[in-house]
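Practice problem 4.
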């Protein structure tokens, strides 16, 4: 694929997705309303934690079957709960915490090879736990985040799923023939001996080790953002130069520029709410059309949520921009190396 066609894919808009106003207003409201209530009650940190849970759970899949929607709520709740527990435990501890995060994400990637349900839960867990670990590091009482984050997540998953009952159903994957537990365990064991089957845990483990080593060596440089980039972009199917890596690198760069317009100073309550409301609405629209645009508006939104609403200085913005670009570059490099190893072996 040439550079021109690659960039065309990076910038391409999905014009076929139909957006309804409730599909935008409901997730945005679930993010902004807790922050408004937190400001009014003088508990902004709690409001931001609830909003973070709502943001993470707002990507619930819209299926037509009530049973499938209930299963989806259960899976996203399990992923979020496990990430809350692990993220809270890893909030302190310096290098040991980074080692624990590496172990948790690597173990999750290996467990995800067990079956489709395990892949869904662990895939979300990997992204959630990096975000919540960063948020817990900024909090005075990391373990107190579990209840508000879970409250926001469960509320968002349930309400968006109920909304899905009246929306056009997303196509369901074809049913798979039933496989017994013993057969799954044998297949899982065999997958650990094949490079093609275990390439995802291998790539994720190496990438998390590299990015978390940056966090250990330069703890003041906010390098955990590189690990978040890896968690978001590393997918089970191996693609040497993922379109999403370019989209996130470019989108995050534009997101930092967007953040510069607002986050260098302490905004008033009204301006803060308007800014977050605009980002919430824009992120819900962009998510359906182009990942680069979504990264652009989600970058300042996530920085506000995990940072506890504190003003974000120039140094932090630059660090997170550099970390995003480094994370995306490492992803491409590791993907290329593993792809060549698979051809040789």
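Answer key:
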């Amino acid at each position: 694929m040439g550079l021109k066609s690659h960039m065309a894919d990076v910038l391409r808009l999905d014009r076929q997705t139909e957006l309804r106003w409730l599909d935008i207003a409901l997730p945005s409201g679930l993010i902004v309303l807790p922050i408004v209530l937190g400001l009014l009650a003088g508990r902004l940190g709690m409001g931001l934690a609830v909003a973070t849970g709502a943001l993470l759970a707002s990507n619930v899949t819209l299926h037509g079957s009530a049973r499938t929607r209930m299963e989806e709520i259960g899976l996203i709740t399990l992923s979020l709960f496990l990430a809350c527990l692990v993220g809270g435990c890893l909030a302190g501890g310096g290098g040991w915490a980074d080692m624990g995060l590496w172990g948790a994400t690597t173990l999750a990637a290996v467990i995800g090879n067990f079956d489709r349900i395990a892949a869904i839960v662990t895939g979300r867990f990997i992204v959630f736990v990096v975000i919540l670990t960063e948020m817990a590091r900024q909090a005075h009482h990391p373990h107190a985040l579990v209840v508000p984050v879970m409250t926001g997540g469960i509320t968002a998953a349930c309400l968006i799923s109920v909304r899905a009952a009246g929306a056009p159903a997303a196509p369901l994957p074809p049913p798979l023939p039933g496989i017994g537990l013993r057969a799954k365990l044998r297949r899982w064991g065999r997958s650990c001996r094949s490079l093609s089957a275990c390439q995802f845990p291998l790539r994720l483990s190496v990438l998390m080790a590299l990015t978390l080593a940056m966090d250990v060596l330069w703890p003041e440089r906010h390098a955990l953002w590189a690990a978040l980039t890896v968690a978001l972009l590393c997918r089970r199917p191996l693609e040497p130069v993922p379109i999403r890596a370019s989209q996130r690198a470019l989108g995050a760069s534009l997101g930092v520029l967007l953040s510069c317009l607002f986050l260098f100073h302490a905004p008033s309550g009204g301006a803060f709410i308007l800014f977050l409301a605009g980002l919430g609405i824009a992120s819900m629209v962009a998510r359906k059309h182009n990942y680069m645009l979504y990264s652009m508006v989600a970058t300042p939104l996530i920085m506000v949520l995990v940072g506890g609403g504190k003003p974000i200085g120039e140094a932090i913005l630059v660090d997170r921009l550099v970390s995003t670009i480094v994370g995306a570059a490492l992803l491409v490099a590791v993907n290329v190396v593993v792809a060549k190893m698979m051809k040789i072996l």
